[in-house]
Amino acid sequence: MVFQNILVPTDGSEYTKAAVRKAVELASLAGGSITALYVLDQTVMTNMPMDSAAVNVYGTLEKEGRDAVEFVRQLCEEAGVPVQVALKEGTPVKVILEESSSFDIIVMGTLGRTGVSKLLMGSVAEKVVRASNCPVLVVRATEA
Predict the structure, then answer these.
(1) pLDDT at 116
(2) Overall average pLDDT of the 11-17 stretch
(3) Running DSSP on this structure, what letter comes out for residue 110?
(4) Choosing a second label site near 12 at 20 to 30 A (CA), which of 22, 110, 133, 140?
């Protein structure tokens, strides 16, 4: 199977940058394209009062998202790989799975929570692997 239409969820971390590099390599070899997806995690906003602090947090998340997808765009352009970017709001696992229906493969790093929160909630990557209808390649970042 040739994976030409690749979804790359990113949070801009070193873990996802390793996955981005692998996705660009795959797309380049297969003559494929990449869609970079950043999810503005609504769970961060759930317990915040709707005041200026919430607006500042949202603005920070939005900037992080733009920076994360811009990293993907730059690598793709350097490699001559067609790229699209998307910023969506929601719960990361749910949005990734909703978006994945039109892709051949998801290439992702280990996104999201760490420590106790990861133990209680599970990882985004693990949940995507378990529920995805398309193949998922999880890339471990050795340099992170």
Answers:
(1) 46
(2) 86
(3) -
(4) 133
- Identify the domain containing residue 78 by its residue range: 5-138
Rounded Cα–Cα distance for residues 8 and 128 (Å) = 12
Tell me how many domains the chain contains.
1
* Length of the chain measured in residues: 144
User: Is 82 domain-assigned?
Assistant: yes
β partners of residue 136? 106
| Strand-strand pairing, 83-90 and 5-9 | unpaired
Tell me the residue type at 103: F
Beta bridge partners of 89: 40
Exposed, middle or buried: residue 139 (CB in 10 Å: 0-12, 13-18, 19+)? buried
Query: Which comes out higher in pLDDT, residue 30 or 42?
Result: 30
Average pLDDT over residues 44-54: 61
Residue 46, pLDDT score? 61
CATH of the domain at 102: 3.40.50.620
SS3 114: coil
